[in-house]
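pinned: reference chain
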Amino acid sequence: MTSADKFARLNPIMFIVATFAGCKPLVVSFMGSDINQNLFVKLIIKLISSSWKAVIVKSANMLEKPVPSLDRVITKIMDVVWIEDVIEYEKVKRVPVQTTLIEESSQEKQREGIITKSKILIINYKRTPQKFNLYAIIPEDSVVGTVIPKPSKISNNYIKWNLETIQPANKIDISYELAGLSAGDFDENDLYVENINPTFVIGADKWEGD
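pinned: its structure tokens
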């Protein structure tokens, strides 16, 4: 029995949480109903990651038990792949290509450009290793800059990654940069997955493209 299992048995609050065991069938039961599956899963994960974190740590200390990995606790309860992302904008200076007679302030403004930075976090909260492809839709008029990890394909409207196998409770960080856009032109990732059951992926839809 792992420390997470023992903790769930010894701690009353975690015992309540553990009654969601089977949260996978519970999530499945939501399909076709009026309940928003994604919203429910996000709520549970946020509760464990934030509101219950202090309680879990305090209870473990009181019981003189190791503090269980929150990712492993969530994995035991939820059985989903979690994808979240954030978009940031960075101002950069452009090298002027010619000298004009316009005002200095206008020159300075023209020399500034925007780099759109996208960061994607994928966490495998499923109980088994997962390997799948991820697609991020990008504006056709954008210029792709640095991409980490190396993508398997970059087209005029998407970036594709053939992800390495993600073990349970492990995560992968993905990032890419886009130039040629203004701040706000690209403010949300449109993500899709392939070679995995999209039912158990939170934060991306099924890829229906080529």
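why pinned: The chain has a mean pLDDT of 75. The first helix runs from residue 3 to 10.
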